[in-house]
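Sequence in, structure out.
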Amino acid sequence: MLRTHLYADPAGRALPLGRAAIEGIKFGLLALVVYLCALPFVLFAGIGLLILFLANAYLLSREYFELAAMRFRPPEEAKAMRKANAGYIFFTGMVIAAFVSIPILNFATPVFAMAFMVHIHKQMSGVGVLVPAR
């Protein structure tokens, strides 16, 4: 049986607990602001759904990309990489938001989104090469 590893570089490292808590609080506050801004549009059936979908895409792309990137680079560098590739990362967030909108399948969102964003980060970093296992 042939097994392959996706990437030849070392595994990512966990963010220190204090820094992870700070990043989580900052993201929670950002999500609160984004959803409060989107809330008035919920009353309008068509545009409300679209705005909520776009808000989810923005938040999911931002958070999952930064989570993936911060395992391989400093937080400031991960955020700069996200900002430099904002359009592409937002598009990937739309894929995750579509995945979230599928009932029952949405339970797998954290696993799917994290694996997807690690792949996107590796691709942007230039290490997205398949390497056969020995």
